[in-house]
Amino acid sequence: MDLGATLCTRSNPKCEQCPLSIGCQAYSNHNWIDYPGKKPKKTLPEKTALFLLLQDTNNHIWLEQRPLRSIWGGLFSFPQFYEFKELLCWFDEHDLPINEHFKKMVPFRHKFSHFQLNIVPIWYKFFNNQRCIHKKNGLWYNLNQPPKVGLAAPVKGLLTQLTISKKNNLLEIIN
Q1: Which UniProt keywords apply (predicted)?
Q2: DSSP states along 106-162
């Protein structure tokens, strides 16, 4: 018999029918509203990731398809790094110079069931019309005519922010 679901309820306890009422603290103190107590909130581990928002002069953003066996598996996302020097190595591998067009946007948090991801968007606009990145697991996402591809929620949000900022000539940058 499930006592918690049938007899020992918070809103309408049936203590007189319960076989355990003799040793019950809630029954003897008449404070059954306090039982069962709330579980302490579990603190989730945190990770921080840098998202690279690489934009060309035609308002295309570079996205890479995530590995199938990962968070957001198979969806398209920005290149992601856990340390700034990884991002710098990526720039070096793709012959991208770091200049004054390299900006840090306002960070935000995305919650998963098992951890929290602190996302630091790094926006970089390059002015060379020759696209330097051609990988089979990526695409140049057209902000003016978005392709129909699967995107993770934070990626959608950042792409929307870029589209709106392009129209209003505003981009929330922190230095």
Answers
A1: 4Fe-4S, DNA damage, DNA repair, Glycosidase, Hydrolase, Iron, Iron-sulfur, Metal-binding
A2: --EEEE-SS-EEEEEEEEEE---SS-----TTEEEEESSS-----B-HHHHHHHHHH
Cβ-Cβ contacts under 8 Å for 174 (sequence gap 6 or more): 104, 105, 106
Total domains present in the chain:
2
Residues paired with 53 in a beta bridge = 123
pTM: 0.73
Give me the mean pLDDT over the 61-81 stretch: 94
Domain that holds residue 31: 12-40
Cα-Cα-Cα-Cα torsion 16, 18, 24, 30, nearest 10 degrees, comes to -30
Residue 1 domain-assigned?
Answer: no
pLDDT for residue 136:
77
**Listed range (35-39, 51-55, 59-63) with the worst mean pLDDT:** 35-39
CB 124 within 8 A of CB 99: no
Strand partners, 26: none
